[in-house]
């Protein structure tokens, strides 16, 4: 029994070694010399070797062992028509082996029939399960068949044991080889194909070209392409979005390629496309079709339904598939990118069928694709109105807030200029200032008087910025707001920002109600915007929002000097004028202004009214004020709009001005709330005790004037006494 077992082991070793060595030799030697001969080497040599084992060495090679041989080769090789030839060689070799050993006995034909039956049963099993599961089923079936044959013909148990051991060895080999071959295939695919997009790598493209050459194909179209501003996509949206864009691009291109065409990725967003063609074939239409496939429609690669518009630059040529042709296409791509991107350019120049570099999106500069994408994404639901234009000022992107602001839908705005909302009343010098800054690459802040589609006028306060690319202005973007109905972030203070309209002046008298004589005039600025009158509230609101209120104040003061040159000022009558604390604190500039003023009117007392609602921006420096008073003793200080501020009383006590002007709101408060008159009366008595004179503003009726007189407030200003006017009056008529 021991010697028999050793014999079975040796037979198993011999048969298994034949299978393993034959296949390994075929792969290591035959495949390298002549790949097509490798399967034939295995299909013929293995069955022939088993026949020699049985005929010469009297190895009991049964139908089950030949079945296991068939199953092993079936699993390790592709199921092609060549397997049909292997069935023939296997059955023929087994028939020869059986006749060699047993002659023409009936059991020989039964054995051959059994092998044919096993092959017929094994083939569908291995088709269904190509892994170790199929091999296990096939081996079990072969061993079972050998066992039945042994029981029926009393041939001996040896062949069944050898079949079992050979099946185990073959199964182990198949398992190892399957895993190894799978690893080799995956490694080869990874080397030949880009793992992200599935496109060929540089090595894969070389292999593809070599395969073409073996088939005699060497000519075609070579396209180099590059995704425009791809680095910006990665930096802005992240590499995950960038990867999605690359996959989508390759998918779009592949959908338009034939099976024999190829696309390769060399790294980043650089691709090469090769299309085998016959010499003389026109490639313009083909390349344009690929470009349109890559750029038409947005790339849905962002969450929330947000899309990106992608531009693609392509350079191409036709010729032999070699390095020289590739270099020509690469240079054409470089020229396409320098020509504005998102275009197709042939190596020899623009072909007849290829348009110059045009944007895919109509009326959109190719250089603005990157900004168009982010503007659409960021501004879609923004509260503030935003607009993006090209270098010619045509609107590319306008969010819904902007459309609502200007009173037009976005379809009307698209392709038009923001000047579609122009009212025609903004002075020309405003636009000159705007374009002088923007055309030199500087931002511009300012205001425009516009008109909506329904005819309503509105003040636009705009912050405009040039968009530059490689030192060239390619567009402009802006944040705009309605002056009176919105809150905006403060803009950066810039020296060039100023009021580009004119400033006229009117004078409203301040009366002593007891004598009905004029004691002073308040100089009131009346700004003009072209021919349009602008309220002081609008003027100063614009100045505050654009942060040029200090310059606006000085513009007013300087224009007042010009106006006062035309006025013969009444003797003994004061001049009241509003100023910002910042202007009053600029002692150097204020000295210059006062010097000019007193050269015109040396005997006029000038009363500076500190605007209460601006006072909180900067507290008055009393030391500077006292220095000015020493140099110009005829100047006085007034606290304006008393009662409208949060710290009026504290400021009144700290500053101790010469005058206090009650805010006009006190008139209605005292009328509707009589108990508040006690407060006014007490404040007036305290002020008089401190030498401070009190003026009541906003008096429009006789009853209001009488009420203030009863409270001890005899200095009045308001429409009841006189409207502001160009001329000065001496007394109440």
Roughly what percent helix? 40-55%
Biggest sheet: strands, sense, closure? 8 strands, mixed, barrel
- Could you give me the name of the CATH homologous superfamily of the largest domain? EAL domain
Number of strands: 19
Q: What's the CATH C level of the largest domain?
A: Alpha Beta
What can you tell me about this protein's structure?
This protein is an alpha/beta fold. The chain folds into four domains: 190 residues, no CATH class; 145 residues, Reverse transcriptase/Diguanylate cyclase domain (Alpha-Beta Plaits); 101 residues, 2-Layer Sandwich (Beta-Lactamase); 216 residues, TIM Barrel. Helices cover 50% and strands 18% of the residues. It has 26 helices and 19 strands. An eight-stranded mixed beta barrel has the order 11-12-14-15-16-17-18-19, surrounded by four helices. It has a five-stranded mixed β-sheet with strand order 2-3-1-4-5, with helices on both faces. A hairpin with a 2-residue loop joins strand 9 and strand 10. The chain is elongated. The N and C termini lie far apart (148 Å).
